[in-house]
Amino acid sequence: MATPSRPARPLEPWQDPHAQPYVLIEELSKVFDGGVAVNSVTLSIYKGELFSLLGGSGCGKTTLLRMLAGFEKPTAGKIYIDGVDMSNTPPYERPVSMVFQSYALFPHMTVEQNVAFGLKQEKLPRAEMRERVEAILDLVQMLPYMQRRPHQLSGGQRQRAALARSLVKRPKVLLLDEPLSALDKKLREQTQLELVNIQEKVGITFVMVSHDQEEAMTMSSRVGVMREGRILQVGTPVEVYEYPNSRFVADFIGTVNLFEGIVTEESKTHACVDSLSAGCSLYVSNSSSAPVGAQVHVAIRPEKVMITKEAPKETRHNCTKGTVRDIAYLGDVSIYYVDLFSGQVALSTVPNLVRAAERPIQWDDEVYLYWRPENSVILTS
How far is CA 56 from CA 34, 125, 210, 249, 252, in A? Predict the structure, then answer.
């Protein structure tokens, strides 16, 4: 009897060569007083995405967002939204809304008046305006607070009021500039999930700027990592974390062990790297096309590195020795800092399945670190 085949999963828009970008940025640049803030960026964002621009301070992500909003004019390049060239369109004529880092609520107005402000400017009929305001406040769970003023709201409530004010205009694209940075850690984590749920309900394309890797990875359909005005890598959170395309991306997204070495063997299925810094031979499956003799870095995430006092069965590859220098206890996990005999420090992240006093590995213990070939990646840049 034939086994029924599973239906093929539909392609995501960015995987479909026939899908048309909803937001298309072509060779976009911005120069301030001779300094390049955004350097020839080309990017496709698809309808319904929650896309994050991620990078450190001064990398150009906010300037790129402000050009999308129309607050900055590009030095060169084009911006298309839903197929229409917006490069020279003023902000008030663009089908976008923006949630600012400071929320920018009018302090003398109630929540209801703040949310209705944009609709009043459009001279909508009073009944329709009230219906839309109440519907959006209900969506963001702010209906009970509609008569309060901003100073009477918590940080999370002000954030939701600012979001409602932007969504009520039914923009094609919503731009968010560090929207959760003013919130404390616990509220920020809670609001991240609320924001994703709201985005899924309204179906509007969100473009968010963030310097917080955890926030971007939690919320986004895809992430664009920026450095010095350029986008270095675009991909889903899993792709960017598991398969970084450069040392910068590997190091910027999360924590990583980086070992330098020389490729001694290379094929379609694997590569071997001789690494003095790792203190062992590194066997990498699904390798890049780095040729024999190339100087490369091999990246391994700390949670993929196993730690033990007993020698593992396979010690020929991907196995090194050292001494535990420090243990960082983070509640759910502990991070072991191990001084390798090669002189480099390596990290291993281990879930805390037992109490700290019962840990089999303590400070100054001599340990083995080892990992599977599929859990490392070769970086050539």
Answer: 21, 44, 9, 11, 9
**Burial level of 1, CB count in 10 A (0-12/13-18/19+)?**
exposed
Cα gap 306→312, rounded to integer Å: 10
Strands 306-308 and 295-300: unpaired
Tokens of 74: 């590009």
Shortest CA distance to 20 belongs to which of 205, 293, 227?
Answer: 205
Q: Is the dihedral of CA 287, 288, 293, 299 positive or negative?
A: negative
The residue assigned the tokens 């090669």 is 342
- Whether 52 and 75 have beta carbons less than 8 Å apart is answered as no
Tell me the residue length of the chain: 381
Name the token pair of 262: 């020389």
pLDDT at 4: 57
Q: In the structure encoding, which two tokens stand for residue 160, read together?
A: 């939701």
Q: Which domains does the chain have, with CATH numbers?
A: 13-247 (3.40.50.300), 255-379 (2.40.50.140)
Q: What is the reported pTM?
A: 0.89
Distance (Å, rounded) from C-alpha 326 to C-alpha 334?
10
Closest residue by Cα to residue 284 from 306, 269, 294 = 269
The tens digit of pLDDT for each residue in 124-160 reads 899 999 999 999 899 888 999 999 999 999 888 888 8
At 355, phi and psi to the nearest 5? -65, 155
Distance CA 378, CA 245 (A): 9
CA distance 344 to 94: 53
State the CB neighbour count (10 A cutoff) for residue 284: 25
State in Å, rounded, how far the first CA of the chain is from the last one. 51
CA distance 339 to 187: 37
Rounded-to-integer distance, Cα 287 and Cα 268, Å: 7
